[in-house]
Amino acid sequence: MKLKKTIILLPGDGIGPEVTRSAANVLQECAREFQHQFTFVEMPVGGAAIDKTGTPLPSETLNACRKADAVFLGAVGGPKWDSLPVGQRPENGLLDLRKGLGLYVNLRPVKVIEPLRGISPLKQDRLGDLDLEIVRELAGGMYFGERGTVKENGVERAFDTESYSTPEIERIAAFAFTRAEARSRRLCSVDKANVLSSSQLWRRTVSAMGTVYPNVKLEHMYVDNAAMQLTLKPTQFDVMLSTNMFGDILSDAAAALVGSIGLIPSASFGTSAPMFEPIHGSAPALAGKDIANPIGAILSATMMLRDTFGLSLEADWAEQSLVRVLNTGVRTADIAEPGKKTVACSVFNDMLHDEMQRTFEHAEKYGWGV
Ligand code: IPM
Ligand code: MN
């Protein structure tokens, strides 16, 4: 089936534009070979938008995203805007966008990429065939709770509030249970119910929902223990469900297990257009040098193809080509090991493009599914 889609590209800051280009190249290649029509529209967000328009999320950007079929975001933030107060920073562009698109689900798959097995800091027997998914609540919690700074008797105090309602917990839990049902039917909900009342409501609500999904084996874990267990025995996890804040922290910890945060994609779903973004930041030190790792961005693009457009053949094609490129031993600098060849981000993209071409021609001749 030939699809017609509008995709908004939000390159953002730092290495954002470089990795966005990598992702867009892959999407464009899929459209070209499979005769889909993808229209790309680039809009400003984050620091780039502050510089251009004075605000990190111009209303034109949000409106365009709302009407789009999918949104791709590179990264936001950087030292240039570090002195701005919370509320006016590039990061607010991203948070307002998540809020504005009603994105309450953030799915972060963490999986060993076979040729990159060696870059994991874990011993191989611990790493095993690590393949887990973090389901992070994205529209609530401390990120969006009441916050402020006050002065009491000459002493400054600042606060941020963690708050969740039952419906907010139910909708993200429903997504996580469904995801677990489609995988190994194990769900680990992570909270801090021994201390926080918001976590107690979280645990109670998730437990109650467990009866609706009797096939899923539900487990609860405190977040401090979960962070430790990720390092000690990560293969015990399949789908992990957590709050906005804990999910943010756990996903960086989990990303480190497979060797680099640059490898991890994410997809966010909600009430309007879905958004796809690598989980890494804008990496200002790497920006503009053509040395960024585009893999997290490319895998975010294949999540868009598979999960939102239903184009699994196209997604498999791109992912298998990516693995074959890695099998030849080329690496961006961040994941280079002795004996491997370091290449620039743009060179990696070109190699992927060539490999996709080779695979496509082969498949045209001998059929897909090989
Ligand atoms: C992420 C990032 C963002 C977050 C920042 C840039 C606001 O760390 O997507 O994980 O905290 O959600
Ligand atoms: Mn993060």
Keywords:
alpha/beta; Isopropylmalate Dehydrogenase; 10-stranded mixed β-sheet; two-stranded antiparallel sheet; 12 helices; 14 strands; binds 3-isopropylmalic acid; binds manganese (II) ion
Description:
The protein has 370 residues and is an alpha/beta fold. The protein folds into 2 domains: 1-104 and 264-370, Isopropylmalate Dehydrogenase (3-Layer(aba) Sandwich); 121-257, Isopropylmalate Dehydrogenase. It is built from 12 helices and 14 strands. It has a 10-stranded mixed beta sheet with strand order 2-1-3-12-11-4-5-10-8-9, sandwiched between helices. A two-stranded antiparallel sheet has the order 6-7. Helix 10 runs antiparallel to helix 11 (312-327) and helix 11 (312-327) packs across helix 12 (345-366). The radius of gyration is 21 Å and the shape is globular. Bound molecules: 3-isopropylmalic acid and manganese (II) ion.
